[in-house]
Amino acid sequence: MQAPINATDKRYIRRRKLGRFALIVLNVIAWLIIMFPLIYAFLMAIKPSGELYDPNSVLFPQNPTLSNFVDVFDIAPIGRYIMNSLIVAVSITLLQITTSILAAFAFRFLNFKGKGIIYGLILSTMMIPGEAVIISQFLMVSGWGLTDSITVLIIPFIVSAFNIFLCVQALENFPYEIYESAKIDGCSDFRFAFTMVLPLIKPTIGAMAVQSFLAGWNMYMWPLLVTNDDSNRTVQIGISMLNSVDSQSLVLMVAGIVICMIPSLAIFIVGQRNMIKGLTSGAVKG
To answer: How far apart are CA 63 and CA 48, in angstroms?
Structure first.
């Protein structure tokens, strides 16, 4: 038979239950505070334009409607903007992952003169803000005749110093003897990088993918500078063009913003676990 629970144990169990309940309540409150901007944006997106300045529907709309999400596609080519942003973000992600793996492989396993100096110069570029070189980049691509195209949105972001740093750190404890054994067996450097190194740093690749996709998706200054044709504009530029002084354009702009947040939220939710693992891999050494 199970021994009866004394008064001390009952108080301990009661305190643990109360502590768990309080922790849940605090988590819910923190979640509501963090998510309030997104919740408010969605509530505003389903609000009719006539209720935008109605004091009776400051937060919750009295007559919610989903027509704003349909009307925003009729007023502007949002579908084309989203497709352009997806092409740019996915291309930047794949290219940065490829170049980062190859660069990290070279810095970790190959011996060449000036390796430390080159690696230091690459890391030093992280201290230079992008706005400081945006004009020189524009003059360079203008000389190449690549302005107002999807290609010009991708070329300046093929390489990421931060992603190279992540890959080098992930390979820091990788045994060099494995590379020597693979070379003796006739394995090429490219095959070793993509068949043996790549599977071992999947968390780092996940973190790079999330960071690169979000950076490519949220670009604003560079697309604004180099694109003029609607067929080449990204979603961030297209949404900003919906802004006006009337209430109809304001709710439509918010509806467009909500639509454009879906891909970035989805990639972050899917890759957040790998992102955390990738950013913290190598932080604790034993």
So the answer is: 7
Q: What residues does each domain of the chain span? A: 75-280
Calculate the CA 170 to chain-centre distance. 20
Contact 165, 105 (CB under 8 A): no
- Res 7: pLDDT: 67
Distance CA 167, CA 209 (A): 12
**How many Cβ atoms sit within 10 Å of the Cβ of residue 88?**
24
* Mean pLDDT of the region 20-48: 87
User: pLDDT digits over 85-121, tens only?
Assistant: 999 999 999 999 999 999 998 898 888 888 889 988 9
Does domain 75-280 bear CATH number 1.10.3720.10? yes
Rounded Cα distance between 107 and 85, Å, is 32
Q: Kindly state the DSSP code that residue 83 receives in the 8-state scheme.
A: H
pLDDT of residue 285: 47
Whether the full predicted model's pTM is greater than 0.85, yes or no, is: no
Gap between the Cα atoms of 111 and 118, Å rounded: 12
* Rounded-to-integer distance, Cα 28 and Cα 74, Å: 38
Nearest-angstrom CA–CA distance, 200 and 38: 36
Q: Which residues contact 238 (CB under 8 A, 6 or more apart)?
A: 76, 77, 78, 81, 230, 256
Summarised one tens digit per residue, pLDDT across range 2-19 is 556 666 767 777 788 888
Structure tokens at 102: 């190859």
Output phi, psi for 48, to 5 deg. -60, 150
How far is Cα 169 from Cα 190, in angstroms, rounded to an integer?
A: 19
Q: What is the pLDDT, as a whole number, of residue 6?
A: 65
| Dihedral (CA of 64, 70, 73, 75) sign | negative
